Amino acid sequence: MSARRLGFGGQVRAVWRKELTDALRDRRSLMSALIVPLIMPLMIAVMFSTLASTLSDDQPIETPVAGREHAPNLMAWLEERGVVVRDPPADPEAAVRAGDVDLVLVIDEEYGEHFRSVRPAVVRIVHDSSRTASRRTIGRVRTLLRAYGSQVAVLRLMARGVSPEVVQAVRVDDLDLATPAQSAARFFAMLPMFLIMVAFIGGMNVAIDATAGERERQSLEPLLVNPMSRPALTAGKWITTCLFGLVATVLTLLMFVLLMRFVPLEDLDVQLSLGARQLLLMSAAVAPLVLLASALQMFVATFARSFKEAQTYVSLLVFVPIIPSTVLQFYPLQPTGWMMLVPALSHHLLLVDVMGGEPITALSLAASATATTLLAVLLLALTSRLLQQEKIVFGRA
Known about the structure:
The protein is mainly alpha-helical. It has 2 domains: 3-53 and 179-393, no CATH class; 57-166, D-Maltodextrin-Binding Protein, domain 2, CATH 3.40.190. 63% of the residues lie in helices and 5% in strands. The protein is elongated, with a radius of gyration of 31 Å.
């Protein structure tokens, strides 16, 4: 059947099949749609696994102590709590500077005398605060020493017939109303930002290849010679781009849920529960943004003379939608109705609500999807008009 006899829908399908075949043969397009969804969740999983192992209190602390004979009770108390007391280096300060040890405890010679006379007994922590890797160990040791000091102070008050509650003028009791899902959503606040980035990255190479790439290969002009409307041509290319973006986004979500099963979230005191319903809602929330991203990338790439030039322009667009997510990390805003009409911002808020187990209304979802889709349609119309200009088709723009 010739293109002249095809209706608008048939023309769109013909272009879509052609573009899909070309995209599947292009390694760059496949890598952006498949590799990125694997890398980002893997980065999150590795980061939180490392954090969990760092925050775990099960690992013993090996601490060199100089002058431990001056504080036998303190040494016994620390050993009961998992601290392995080691012999100190000859030069504690030089050993810490060289990175041979994280810290060295130095017990003052007058520790015992001051302790017995109820005066502050000095314990010096020799450490290097510029070494990030040792901060956790230093913090744990400092916390243990403070706990020991508090325990001794309580025993001294009780020995003198004074209630320890005398020194506690105000007691603060926390009542946290956040649900486990809300706490997990706050902990994984970067996931919505990553999903928004993938929505722009997944179909980026397809959008560039279908516009600037076609013109660089000089295959756009023969394609336009066919009796096919410009809107149908634009729509067929756009659908292919959207397909790759949606696949990348869904794969990112699935890989995130899969990899989180291997992360010891209990060590982070986080409970993440994303079932099939939450995954569907998150996919539905971010899907309109994929439509907008594909249309915007095609519109911008149409102006470029070559694939590399278009890649430069379109790559910069990736940073635009993550601006609202970044701002919300530092300046939390109370969600209001008008925010559902702002692309990227509305999608971020919807994703956070779904992850936190908050109910999202159909009106909010519809408002976000409608505003984003209308903007995508406008960009498609502008792209279609550009393809009617000779300076665009023949690379004179």
